[in-house]
Write a structure and sequence with these properties.
Elements: H1 27-42, H2 48-61, H3 64-95, E1 102-107, E2 110-115
Antiparallel strand pairs: 1-2
Helix pairs in contact: 1-2, 1-3
DNA-binding region: 21-89
Region (Disordered): 1-26, 75-101
Pfam families: HMG_box
Length: 124
């Protein structure tokens, strides 16, 4: 937190710098975004946790056919995320001067830069 002239904390925090694109959302989150308002209107006295429980119950009761539009949105969002990560990796590579021996490698959910020494094939 930033300090005021008198040495007290001013209440404002420094904004964190975003590192990379936003992660891809799972199908359930797309469902929650769409349904949250209607659940709150149906249950105006429900707390935040109760709304989450109701949404979870609705999601579990849905068939695969009903979940299909949310699954397709999630697939689209995953493609967007991967595209932005590839773009970011290329930008980082350019910033490094396109040095010989640098490649992009997937680590868990993210792609990052690695030297050819770090990229191990067939080892876990």
């Amino acid at each position: 937190m930033a300090r005021s002239r008198r040495g007290r904390r001013s209440g404002r925090r420094k904004r964190k710098r975003r590192r990379g694109p936003k992660r891809a959302l799972p199908p359930y989150m797309f469902f929650c975004k769409q349904q949250r308002k209607s659940v709150i209107e149906e249950h105006p006295d429900a707390s935040f946790g109760d709304v989450g429980k109701i949404l979870g119950q609705k999601w579990r009761r849905m068939s695969d056919v009903e979940k299909k539009p949310f699954l397709s949105k999630a697939v689209k969002d995953k493609k967007r995320y991967r595209k932005q990560m590839r773009k970011r990796a290329k930008k980082q590579l350019r910033r490094l001067g396109g040095r010989e021996g640098w490649k992009t490698k997937s680590v868990g959910r993210q792609e990052c830069l690695a030297t050819s020494r770090d990229v191990s094939v067939g080892k876990s």
